[in-house]
Design goal:
Chains A, B: GO terms for molecular function: hypoxanthine phosphoribosyltransferase activity; xanthine phosphoribosyltransferase activity. The structure is a homodimer of 213-residue chains. The first copy, chain A, is an alpha/beta fold and 213 residues long. Chain A contains eight helices and eight strands, in the order αβαβαβαβαβαβαββα. About 4% of the residues of chain A have low confidence.
Chain lengths: 213, 213
């Protein structure tokens, strides 16, 4: 591979490293007694960390935490940059919560601890969108069901937070109450996740060399 | 660990092994020119293979295949065995397709190639439910939109098919046309997936010893 400039700026991450990131963050959540009632995975990036962290948020005899998926994509990632300004939105919603199915077995999100999971916090645009829309969704449910006193507590878990200027913010309260959980804060490099690797053996070796195993 | 009877019946699978399973099955799909238009992940087990296989179903310059999640759980896995008979259903639906959000950017499932993904085909109950309900869903959409001539093609991808008597079946046509894709057919052993591992280093070593890396 050689030590070209391009290599240096790439951070290779193994599956086992990601597994341990999830395990570590989950241990922190459990130590504080803040086990979530529901996990919301942002597809596609959030699906893998969401499934892994669920394993570590389970106590003996407890049921699995239900996972709901929401599909959010940035226009820029879909090669639709030119449409952003005319449409006036940066995020495309491809799937939303299914309250109809959820409530039959789970009540609703009202009054619950909700853990939102994604793989990376890059510009913070997607996370901002997710939190804002979910809060709004719960609020309108509360009004509809006349349950406005109950407090819903949102937390965020990402594998990596990129240390860079963000285009959007998250609620003050979430930050000050340590409900924003990044397993690692990293420089603004190219994150090479294992699920994108065309040669997983070579990828894992590179991750080990970089200490990301 | 020692070679106790319990150990022998456990099959340890590493993340890298799962990655390669997805890569191999995807190569087969691409070689046949049968790239799916949409992936449907059955949560929680299907989320990891769904996200991984998507990487290998992408050609240069093509957009990511959209993923929709559906939440299906067996009553028996939720400790609700005793309720099954009275309710008369074996599967709990916790999330369904979000056609409202999907169609804005994607049309619908009508006339599409749809790849349903789960981790394991054990009794086949969940997969049977998923295919039956999805076919029905598409059918009613077709009638609603007056597009009954278009053929929707469902395929299934699982990491492991357990070689055991099944409680439910899949469409004949799907089997005969090789649209049921199991990366591996295994005996009826205890599959230890990496995302359940409390010690991922030890787990990976055990998987390597068993040749599942």
């Amino acid at each position: 591979m050689g030590g070209t400039v391009e290599d240096v700026q790439k951070m290779y991450i193994s599956y086992n490293n990601i597994h341990k990131c999830c395990q570590r963050v989950a241990a922190g959540i459990m130590a504080k007694g803040e086990r979530p009632d529901v996990i919301i995975a942002i597809t596609g990036g959030g699906m893998i960390p969401a499934r892994i962290i669920r394993s570590f948020l389970k106590s003996r005899g407890q049921k699995n935490i239900p996972i709901q998926a929401i599909g959010l994509s940035l226009y820029e990632d879909m090669g639709l940059d030119d449409q952003v300004e005319s449409i006036g939105k940066e995020v495309i919603r491809t799937q939303w919560l299914d309250f109809g199915s959820l409530e039959q077995h789970f009540d609703s999100l009202i009054g619950k601890r909700v853990l939102i999971v994604d793989e990376v916090d890059d510009t913070r645009t997607t996370l901002h969108y997710a939190v804002t829309e979910l809060e709004q969704e719960v609020r309108s449910q509360q009004i509809k069901l006349n349950r406005i006193e109950e407090k819903t507590i949102f937390s965020i878990f990402v594998l990596h937070n990129k240390d860079k200027p963000k285009k959007a913010s998250l609620p003050e309260e979430m930050m000050s109450e340590d409900r924003y959980l990044a397993a690692e804060t990293v420089p603004d490099v190219w994150l090479c996740y294992p699920w994108e690797a065309m040669d997983i053996e070579e990828h894992t070796e590179l991750a080990i060399k970089q200490g990301n195993n």
